[in-house]
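Hi everyone, sorry if this is the wrong subforum. Our group has a chain we'd like a structural model of before ordering constructs, and none of us has done structure prediction before. Sequence below.
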Amino acid sequence: MRAVKDIFSHVGAQLTRRDLVDFEHALKDAIHDFLPFKTYSLYFPQSLPRDAAYDAAGLKPTYLSDEGKLLLPLVLRGELLGYFVAKGVRLRAPKTAPRYLTALAAASLERLLLYKASLTDRLTGLLHRQAFLDALAREIDLIQSSLASDQASSMDENLTSFSGCLGVLLLKVDQLSRINESCGYAFGDKALVRIGEMLQKVLPAEAQPARMDDDVFAVLVPGAKPQALRQLAELLREKIKAETFHNELLDEPVRLTASLGAVTYPQNANGQQLGRQPGEIARILERKAQLALRTARNLGHDRSLSFNDLLPHGGRVLETLPMERAMVSIGRLIGAHEGQRFLVRPPEAKEETQVGRPPYKGELVLGEVREKCSVAEILYLGDPAWPIQPGDRLTLIRDEESPSAAAPPQAGRQKDLLTDLYDRKDLLPLFAARRQRAERFCLVMLRVTSRSKDHGVPLTGRMDALAAKTSELVRERMSGFLEAPDAFGARFSLNSLVYYLPEADPQEVLRAAEDLMRQAAAQDAELAVGVAAHPFLSFQKSDALDNCRKALDHALLLPEPKAALFDSISLNISADRLFSAGDVYNAVEEYKLSLLADETNTVARNSLGVALARLGKLEQAKRHFEKAVEYDPKDINALYNLGRTRHRLGEVQSAREAFSAILAQDPKHVFSLLRLGALAEEAGELDEAVRFYEQARALPGGEGPTMRHLARLAIAKGDKEQGRELLHLALIHNHKDAMCLHLLAKLYLDSGEDPEIAETLARQSAALRPDREEYWEMLKRALEAQGKHDQAQAVETLRSSE
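Answer:
Right subforum, don't worry. Here is the predicted structure as tokens:
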């Protein structure tokens, strides 16, 4: 034990009352090993004696045999942290047992302290990398469990107090190695400690900072959306830049800067990644945050960059290649795909251009897209005397913004002899010219891959051979379409082909494409095909290429044959991606287009209702949910969303009818029972509410989300002890439950316990749900209970800023 204490003394680790709340489940299990009990709670007196021996007066366990209750003091190294209140206790030797129970409790606290030390970085006291990744994996698991339980009901924050998203920041101190060499390593260590302290002071209460490496910190922010995470990254960057660090070796002030990378989940995870295990997703997010951080540093120190910004603004030219090609720093990891076009600009330090030169050097199109980089083809140079060079920056553009597309088609364009296809740089000019001469046409996009892996042949050679083979098959199987005047084919990327087929019928084209895919499979090639037709809805002719890409994305999600015609489902998939990325307004417009294409698409209608409700347009949302239920009365998601929206609009009886209709189909629908319980509770029918909550609690997956409601009811009935127990159980299920944190803070204040603990809980609840006025009022009350009147006054200012 002495050796353990020596370790703690060196590390500086200590156990706090807040740690008892955080490690409550582990503490409960440890005490239960030597003291059987039925229920328990933690109690923190407002005035705790300091540096008192464990056997001092008032610190011995108190056993109330009539109540079966034991008040066990939690003493660690002479400091009373709080009391563990065990209920349902029967001591066989009530006179002698208390003598050893406190010592056993102290041993449990020593183990908790050892556990805490195993999670923290020795220099800064923050979480170390593995502990951070474990915490991140736990948050991801909560999100996955919520999404898996029921897509609509699980995201009802009034039932679960769960936002369903998170953010990760990586922060790297710029040029710390150079500073260590010039100012000394002791200075560097002190600077890192200062930055760690600043993070703990500045970050929201629910955020978890960590030290990942020598000069790299990380922050986990539950509930963070992309815009809020960007703002937090900028705040941290500015705080570090404003700090002054004193170099004792040279007796002079030193200023530091930091670069940051930000990533959010699930917004920055693609479909396949969403299905992986939480631990794997945690490492994927770390890698994406590292990529954003590295890009921020490559663009210049002292800046922050979001993962969402990497594709449109974060690309660079890595090297120029023969045959008018270049290697660029963007790949599949950040959402790049073949055919995307970028303007090339000089590095920021060389932004000013000569008079008469365009504001960009030229244009690139992605050809061979790899995981972290891509081979791009140079389509256009603004000035041959101003060549593209390594370090040049890339800006993503739409097809209609392409300088090469604006160029008039040249007479005598030559097809590639191997594939009989036009070059990709000719695609947009040809399409722009020939579509003007047709009232109706189809575009077909084919993505081809090989079933065999011939590693002896370079990738470009393999893909050229596949393109030639596929082109020959198209000429054989789709010759009737290609005989039309103005029909042509072109390379869209290294592994994609595009065909323009004027006056073609889209259904006939789709059938021919499916036959083509079967023939390709017989020749060891795999095809996915997207078809887009014009006219379609209100889309312009120029939109057809983008629609064709969306159809191909749709096809890639299908089983064999992977062929799709651009339709309502394609638009639905595109809208879902916009919504998951936080672009709710554009998602709404895309959902509306999906319904114009097929008004019976209940998935799109339900999703549109959810998006409109997110924007606060409840009446519009309700109409779409009602229409979805009209088309499919057994659509549980639509019924739940309809009931929830009616409830928010004050239509209580019709809300009950919707939730009851769900239970008629699925009596084990936990969230409908919870919602009916909430309706009964609001009507003052507390016994009826308890009945619904207990029904939900007894179902698989119902215990965790039900505890918070039963706790609230217990408190409303005046049973604060039971309410406290249920709140602790609810926080074990979800330690970021804002309502439970708020109610627990209120209980601590109402019972005259430690207001510092109440302040910590209230801060966390207000940070998780800044829209709840009562949470901020509880924080003000906790501050005033400690005499922190200035801070209590400042809460209103903070409230306004949120």
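For your construct planning: Residues 1-11, 50-58, 149-155, 349-353 have pLDDT under 50 and may be disordered. The longest helix spans residues 97-119.
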